[in-house]
Amino acid sequence: MRVALRPHPESAALGEFVLEVELERQEGALLLGYTLQGELERLRLPDAGAALPPQRLWAHTCFELFLAPERGSGYCEFNFSPSGQWAFYAFSAYRQPATVPQPPAPCLRWHRAPTCLSLRVRLSPESLPSGQGALRLGLAAVLEGKEGAFSWWALAHPSGQPDFHAPEGLALQWEE
Asked: How many domains does the chain have?
């Protein structure tokens, strides 16, 4: 399955971009393929191996994934930075942190070309919310411009300010 993300109406005009995510399940693992095409020279992209504060990867260009079981208010968030770093957060309800064990490290493969930035992610079955039924997914990205302006991309945006944690953002139903 392939889906297109779109910018939030309050996003800065950083240039012409197309952002798509391809999803697949393989032996219980979740495979994601983020592809950003466009004027990458207009973005601030962390270099591979750059040391960013891990708890603030979302404050720079990064791709994001929110996962929740079909029923319940808990969810988790993954951030993937072009630096190669990743972060995980768990929540018991909307923006309410939860203490859970750190999942196994995802397998990340970044590729950068003049007009294309892509990321392939493999999340092991142990990284996914357990339980019966479908998952709800929120797919998102933060694009940081060279001058410090931001563009927020998602599959679905709630009304008002950009908020990837809003329940409306977990808009994709994914059957196990």
From this structure: 1
Q: Is the pTM of this model over 0.90?
A: yes
Per-residue pLDDT tens digits for 117-158: 999 999 999 999 876 578 999 999 999 999 999 999 999 999
Query: What is the rounded distance in angstroms from the CA atom of residue 40 to the CA atom of residue 35?
Result: 12
Exposed/middle/buried for residue 38 (C-beta within 10 Å: 0-12, 13-18, 19+): middle
Query: Which residues span the domain enclosing 24?
Result: 2-174
For the segment 70-92, what is each residue's pLDDT rounded down to a tens digit?
A: 888 899 999 999 999 999 999 99
- Beta strand 2-7 with 86-93 is unpaired
Burial track 55-89 (b if 16+ CB lie within 10 A, e otherwise) = eebbebbbbbbbbbbbeeebbbbbbbbbbebbbbb
